[in-house]
Design goal:
It is a single chain. The chain is of the alpha/beta class. Helix content is 37%, strand content 18%. The chain has two domains: 36-122 and 237-290, D-Maltodextrin-Binding Protein, domain 2 (3-Layer(aba) Sandwich), CATH 3.40.190; 124-233, 3-Layer(aba) Sandwich (D-Maltodextrin-Binding Protein, domain 2), CATH 3.40.190.10. The radius of gyration is 27 Å and the shape is elongated.
C-alpha cells in the first residue's frame, strides 16, 4: 500500500496545473531557451570566409549588401588563402566559400566540420594575350580553337605549371589535335605570377585565373590582356559550406540563410549578368543548378 493517501497523489491531469501555477508565481512567461539554438537566435552577424576568386570586381560584396538589406543580418566578408579551412576549423567562419574539389574541403566535410557543399558559382581561367595578338586568339570561337591558333602560328606559349592551370592546358592540347610542341610550347617550370611575367616579357601567351591576373596587374605593369571563353574546362566551381557548430561559436542557422540566398534563381541571375569593364562576357557563371533544387 502506498505511503501517500489518494488525496495527496498527483495525477497526470493535475501536473500541468501545478506547473502553470509555479510559472505564474515566479514570473516566468516561457521557459528560457538553452544551448546553441539560443545563442544563434541572439546572433545576427554572419562571418563569410572566402577564396579571393569569389571577390573579383566586388560582385560578392554587392550580393551580400543586398542580402543584408533584405534580411537584417550583418555579414563580414573576409578573403582567405591556403589556410581557409584551418581558420574554419578554429570557428572563425559561419560560411566558407572555396573551390569544389579542394582536398581540404573534402576533408573538412568528411570530418563532420562542415555540411555538404552547395555550388554557387564558377570563376574562370583566362587566355592572357599580348596586345598585338599575332595568333588571332581574340577572333576564336572557343577555347580549343584559340589554343590551336597559337600552335599553328607557333607563337610562344608559356606553360603555367600551377596544378589546375596545367590540367586545363593539357586538356586543350589534346582537344586541339595534339600539335607538335617544339619551339612554341615552352615548359619552363614556372607557376603562377612568374609564368605570366615571362609570357609578358616574350610578348607571348599563357593561361591563368582571371582573379589572380587582375590582382597582379594592379601591382605591376603588364601588357597582357585577358580573353575569356564560354567553356566549362575554363570554369572552376566555387561552393559554399556551412560550418557545423561548436556551440556558441558558429551561427549555423543564419549561415544557411545566406547560403540559400546565394543559390536562389534571382541571385544566380545577378551572377550571370555581372560584368567587368573592358572584358566581354560573364566573369562568373551560375552553378546553383548543380544543387538538388
Amino acid at each position: 500500500m502506498s505511503a501517500l493517501s489518494p488525496k495527496f497523489r498527483l495525477t497526470a491531469a493535475v501536473v500541468p496545473v501545478v506547473v502553470a501555477l509555479l510559472v505564474t508565481l515566479i514570473g516566468v512567461a516561457d521557459p528560457p531557451k538553452v544551448g546553441a539554438a539560443a545563442v544563434e537566435d541572439k546572433q545576427s552577424g554572419i562571418r563569410l570566409l572566402t577564396v579571393g576568386a569569389a571577390l573579383t570586381g566586388g560582385m560578392m560584396q554587392d550580393l551580400v549588401a543586398e542580402f543584408e538589406a533584405e534580411t537584417g543580418h550583418e555579414v563580414t566578408v573576409t578573403a582567405a588563402g591556403e589556410d581557409i579551412f584551418d581558420r574554419a576549423r578554429a570557428a572563425e567562419a559561419d560560411l566558407v566559400m572555396a573551390h569544389l574539389g579542394f582536398t581540404e574541403l573534402h576533408d573538412f566535410v568528411a570530418d563532420g566540420r562542415g555540411q555538404w557543399p552547395a555550388p554557387v558559382l564558377s570563376n574562370t581561367v583566362a587566355f592572357l594575350v599580348p596586345p598585338s595578338d599575332p595568333a588571332g586568339v581574340r577572333g576564336a570561337d572557343d577555347a580549343v580553337e584559340a589554343f590551336r591558333l597559337i600552335a599553328e602560328s607557333r607563337q610562344p606559349f608559356i606553360v603555367n605549371e600551377l596544378g589546375e592551370t596545367r590540367y586545363v592546358t593539357d586538356t586543350l592540347w589534346n582537344a586541339s589535335g595534339r600539335p607538335d610542341k617544339e619551339e612554341w610550347f615552352l615548359e619552363l617550370g614556372l607557376s603562377g605570377a612568374p609564368a605570366v611575367q615571362e609570357a609578358d616579357r616574350r610578348s607571348g601567351y599563357t593561361l591563368w585565373g582571371l582573379h589572380p591576373f587582375l590582382m597582379l596587374r594592379q601591382q605591376q605593369p603588364l601588357d597582357l590582356e585577358p580573353v575569356l571563353f564560354d567553356d566549362s574546362i575554363l570554369q572552376r566551381i566555387i561552393a559554399s559550406v556551412v560550418v557545423r557548430r561548436p556551440p556558441g561559436r558558429v551561427n549555423e542557422r543564419a549561415a544557411r540563410t545566406l547560403q540559400t540566398y546565394l543559390v536562389d534563381p534571382a541571385t544566380q541571375a545577378e551572377i550571370r549578368s555581372f560584368r567587368l569593364p573592358g572584358i566581354d562576357g560573364p566573369v562568373f557563371w551560375p552553378a546553383g543548378n548543380q544543387n538538388d533544387n
